[in-house]
Amino acid sequence: MERILIIGSLGQIGSELVMALRKKYGNGNVFATDIKNPGEEIRNSGPFQILDVLDYKNLLHFIVRHHITQIYNLAAVLSGNAEKIPLQAWEINMKALMNTLEAARQSEAKKMFWPSSIAVFGPTTPRHNTPQLTIMEPNTVYGISKLAGERWGEYYTRRYDVDFRSVRYPGLISYKTEPGGGTTDYAVEIFFDAIKKGSYECFLSKNTALPMMFMDDAIDNTIRLMEADASKLSLRSAYNMAGISFTPNELAESIQKRLPEFNISYQPDFRQTIADSWPASIDDHIARHDWGLNTKFDIEKMVGLMLEKVKEKLK
Ligand code: NAD
Ligand code: SER
Fold first, then answer.
1. How many whole angstroms from 34 Cα to the centroid of ligand 1?
2. Which one of 12, 79, 244 would you pick to mutate in the ligand 1 pocket, going by the greatest count of ligand atoms within 8 A of its CB?
3. Mutate-to-test residue for ligand 2 from 74, 79, 276, highest number of ligand atoms within 8 A of CB
4. Residue 164 confidence (pLDDT)
5. Per residue in 178-232, pLDDT tens?
6. What's the 275 CA to ligand 2 centre distance in angstroms?
7. Which atom of ligand 1 approaches the CA of 14 most closely?
8. Average pLDDT score over the chain
9. Ligand with an atom nearest the CA of residue 183
10. I need a labelling partner for 118 at 20 to 30 A (CA). Which of 82, 213, 246, 266 fits?
11. 176, 128, 228, 147: which is closest to 15 by C-alpha?
12. Nearest CA to ligand 1 atom 19
């Protein structure tokens, strides 16, 4: 029986991943942890404990005491926030990963998931249909930490018997929990402002294309990767994951089909430079081949559902 630890479980991804894993593996077998207090859904549906991933002793103790078999580590400082505190962000992101890799090595919880990002690519990477293996010279502290993290994950799999698995998530779009300070957050904020105010001031420019994915697709595929037969995985760094690519203008046009009065204006800030260094679209055929990466949401389906759910949430 699997016993699963989720670190950083109350963020944009964790709050949905916990519930999906509890449904699949049983509420009592999915241990949600974070450094802040949970809302009702997570607290009432299964075990929750405050746990700081930077505290190695406590982390290892928790894993051993609860007979954990799998770890998902979601704790990180995201791209926009990391640029405001570069050294601190580097220390947090790397220590969070290294503590988890070490805890996996020293315990029975060998299988672990840690997300990488499209931020591993940089301005010298081919921008369109970016291949899995290509030039990687990230110029953000977040991207540098993700690229280093991928290398360490592969190293621990090859050198020790840790079963590290990862994907390069595109920007994730969801309505349950606010995003945590990334460059792709505009694609969530826009829905809340469209419903609340009928307008949105975007911090990226009109034609900045970025790869994105609806959260349901991200969660399904994360679990699919973790359940894949190890012998099928040709990569132990992180798999490219494409999703859907669009610009703020294209997203606004899709919203306008349903809310004709909605208008968007553009006021690019420091996150524009970050977005300009990332791919516009990604090639993910290796993930599709190795473990069956499969997405269901295109832009129209995603926009329709987001507007409906954000409306319900704001009522
Ligand atoms: P988030 O910021 O929404 O959530 C992170 C969670 O980690 C928060 O609940 C926070 O309280 C917790 N946390 C912070 N420091 C901690 C610590 N020391 N110990 C334990 N918990 C701590 O982030 P997210 O969007 O859910 O992203 C999760 C992971 O996925 C990150 O590694 C991020 O880089 C990666 N990722 C996210 C996206 C995206 O679009 N959301 C895209 C690519 C990669
Ligand atoms: N959504 C994330 C960010 O913008 C990508 O890793 O930071």
1. 10
2. 12
3. 79
4. 98
5. 999 999 999 999 999 999 999 999 999 999 999 999 999 999 999 999 999 999 9
6. 9
7. 26
8. 98
9. 2
10. 266
11. 176
12. 52
Report the nearest-CA residue for atom 44 of ligand 1: 117
Query: Is the distance from the beta carbon of residue 60 to the nearest atom of ligand 1 less than 6 Å?
Result: no
Catalytic residue among 72, 142, 169, 186: 142
What average pLDDT does the segment 97-108 reach?
98
The confidence score (pLDDT) of residue 138 equals 98
In the chain, the domains with their CATH numbers are: 4-171+213-240 (3.40.50.720), 174-212+244-314 (3.90.25.10)
Contacts 24+ apart (CB under 8 A), 39-42: 39/10, 39/15, 41/15, 42/9, 42/10, 42/15, 42/18
The tokens 């694609």 sit on which residue? 187
Average pLDDT of the segment spanning 50-60? 98
CA distance 185 to 80: 9
Whether 125 and 21 have beta carbons less than 8 Å apart is answered as no
> pLDDT by residue (tens digit) across 91-102?
999 999 999 999
pLDDT of residue 17: 98
C-alpha 24 to ligand 1 mean position (Å): 22
**Mean local confidence (pLDDT), 298-305:** 98
pLDDT band at 254 (very low <50, low <70, confident <90, very high): very high
Of the candidates 213, 225, 189, 217, the one whose C-alpha atom is nearest the C-alpha of residue 72 is 225
169 given a catalytic annotation: no
